[in-house]
Amino acid sequence: MGDPDNLSSFFEEIKPLIGEYVETRLELIRLQVIRGLSQTVGLLVWIAVSAFVFLVILIFSGIVLGLWLSELVGSQILGFGLTTLIIVALFILLAVFRKSLFIDPVVRAVIRRSGKELGKSEDSPVE
């Protein structure tokens, strides 16, 4: 084996380098987590804004449809009542198919984004 004095001096010399490596590695992991979280939050904010715009479009479309049906049937109550029934039916359809239309695509997008980030971080060399 090696000389104990040489071995202990080797460990004394390498100890600061090991500490620096561990600190650098922890910082790299922290930054990768921050990047992944920020992109996920950005995706969720985009989804929320899109949902709000969809709601505004739905409201104005409902008003227009209600006025148009009122003209067709000759009664505002009946026109807006039919519009309400159409919107309720649309809401029920969205509630029934919520998993396949909303939940699964969002989960897949978040996983895909996270997978891309993990793939980039594992392939990138540590300098």
Detailed description of the structure:
α1 runs antiparallel to α2 (76-96) and α1 (4-73) packs antiparallel against α3 (98-123). The protein has three helices and no strands. The model has no long low-confidence stretch (mean pLDDT 84). The protein is mainly α and 127 residues long.
Quick rundown:
By secondary structure, the protein is mainly alpha-helical. It contains three helices and no strands. The model has no long low-confidence stretch (mean pLDDT 84).
Could you give the order of the helices and strands?
A: HHH
What percent strand?
under 5%
State the distance separating the first and last CA atoms: 32 Å
Q: How many H/I helical runs?
A: 3
| Rough outline | rod-shaped
Q: Which residues form runs of ≥5 with pLDDT under 50?
A: none
Keywords:
3 helices, 127 residues, mainly alpha
What is the element layout, followed by pairings?
Blueprint: H1 4-73, H2 76-96, H3 98-123
Helix pairs in contact: 1-2, 1-3
